Request: fold
Amino acid sequence: MNKKLAAAMALLMSTTTFAGGLGQPISLPSAKVLPKGVRNFTYKGIITNPSEKMNASGDNVVLADPLMKKITFGDMIKGQYDPVDQGSLEQKMMAIGANENTEMGETVGQINMAVQASVPIFAIGINKRHTLAVAVPVTRYSTNVATGVRHTNPGMIDSLRQELAVETGSTLKQEEFDAKFGDPINSKLSEYGYERLENENNTKLGDIKLVSKYKAYEGNKSAFSLVSSLTLPTGQEADVDKVLDIGGGDGQLDIELGFAHDFYATKYFTFTAAAGHTVQFADTAEKRIPFTETSSLTPDVDRSTFRDLGDITKGELAAAWNYHGINLGAGYAIQYKQGDEYSGDSYADSRYQLLEKDTVQNMQTLQVNAGYDTISLFRKGKFFAPMKVSVGHSRVISGKNVVASPMTTIDFSMFF
Reply:
């Protein structure tokens, strides 16, 4: 039994963070399974500080990039719901010699985030070939947000303020104008029914994952396992009333099918190749339906938006070295997610299609880890239990429409 335990010290599942889209792997793939009747408890602590993302062109941009926009007279006019107010503002615009493209200023912002995820995993060997596991992720995050405005055309702003001042009963309009140019981001959010951008700390349950691993073949030089998982919609989704929120899950069902193939190069050295495909089932969800392609801000909410999140395909290569309890490993992963599809009955089809923008994703990552296990000491009767501690680190080397910040994983595993 002790030799089998030594073989089972590899992680039982390779999964990713950030439900609904692509995330970095938090473990290396392996074809190994638990011996019959052996149970395993693993705790994974994941730490990352998202600060950058890769856009649709593959370029790195800061998370606050959507907050940095130019403000024109045209933007002000579009913000007036009353046609009378729109016409009045257009007249004043022409009176001061401006047009819809005249720039008034630009919004600026900064976002700092810290994300920690705790993932307890319990697994059991059903028989010598079949292992079942359940993972229950919990995400804790904090956000620090600062927004402001830079006036690039103060002379034109003063002229417009003077035009508003000569209008009878214009006090309210002047206050609205000052609010829009004093704190334009939160002013627009309030107008559309969003919550203000504020510093926040929150904890959310994630999507529980059930994993099955079946070893279909094992020989002297290699082993081959079939891996499947079912992701349950238990996680709390991102709040549609917040422009900056991290969902614990995406609220829909996923099924993943894949394989892992180990090649035993030597007694201590193993190569692994793995691949998998995740089907994300269609459902309905509460979504805000945007007006234009350039901005996702909108007051319109469809509480039964049909969505079909794109399926995900991944491939992984890894190498692991284990020598008398010292564990070193490295891996490469490539992932691709298809685009999402949205539709509904409350608004024009073209507006739902705006939700599909930049939902195609791809990502390539590199991962390294190092650890130590007590298997050899346990076999000699010098330690009370077989366990393992390790630290992993991963980086995104290329991608599109994905978070680009590095991630660190701390891992504790115990067998009993």
About this structure: Residues 2-59+118-143+206-415 form a domain with the Porin fold (CATH 2.40.160.40). The longest strand covers residues 103-125. Confidence is low (pLDDT under 50) at residues 1-19. The chain is about 15% helix and 45% strand.
